[in-house]
């Protein structure tokens, strides 16, 4: 009987992110060995597909945040500045209420700071916020596309300063202050 070559398991990045999201939700962290086992692939294959733990973790954090953001956007009842703030309030409340996310922030503050405020997650958050700003007027743009780009960056930084205050400065910052600052910025740039 002829010998056949062992089959290779082909796995997509999307499949890996999905598996890693499930792991993160259960454990509040990401164990590359466990994800590889769950996918029935080697660590080498896993790293070939995702590049690094940080890249996969950034994808996981964004995938989970994007779900919360989509839900918040779907619940929006207002338009304009109030609608933008309503989405943010709903998103931040859900994120702060996430036990896996809180566990991750406590266990890996340096990784969280690096990924959430300076990398791929931050860039995706800015792009998502730009889209929220452009949709805020329900057919009548409140901001120009160019203005929305800059405003989205500033807006996300304001939200991050409150949401991740303990990571950035070891102090807790009230969301009320951040919301007042965000409202002032949104109103002044229209």
From TrEMBL:
Name of the molecule in the record: QsdR TetR regulatory C-terminal domain-containing protein
Alphabetized Pfam families for the sequence: TetR_C_36
Protein species of origin: Streptomyces nitrosporeus
SUPFAM superfamilies per record: Homeodomain-like
Domain of life of the native organism: Bacteria
Domain QsdR TetR regulatory C-terminal as annotated: residue spans: 79-187
């Amino acid at each position: 009987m002829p010998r056949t070559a062992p089959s290779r398991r082909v796995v997509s990045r999307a499949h890996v992110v999905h598996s890693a999201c499930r792991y993160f939700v259960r454990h509040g962290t990401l164990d590359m060995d466990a994800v590889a086992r769950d996918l029935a692939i080697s660590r080498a294959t896993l790293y070939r597909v995702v590049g690094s733990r940080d890249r996969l973790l950034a994808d996981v954090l964004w995938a989970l945040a994007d779900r919360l953001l989509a839900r918040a956007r779907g619940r929006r009842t207002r338009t304009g500045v109030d609608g933008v703030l309503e989405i943010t309030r709903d998103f931040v409340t859900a994120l702060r209420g996430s036990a896996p996310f809180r566990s991750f922030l406590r266990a890996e503050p340096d990784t969280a700071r690096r990924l959430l405020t300076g990398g791929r997650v931050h860039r995706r958050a800015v792009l998502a916020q730009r889209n929220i700003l452009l949709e805020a007027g329900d057919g009548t743009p409140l901001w120009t596309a160019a203005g929305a780009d800059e405003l989205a960056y500033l807006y996300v930084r304001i939200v991050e300063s409150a949401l991740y205050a303990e990571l950035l400065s070891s102090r807790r910052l009230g969301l009320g202050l951040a919301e007042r600052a965000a409202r002032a910025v949104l109103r002044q740039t229209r």
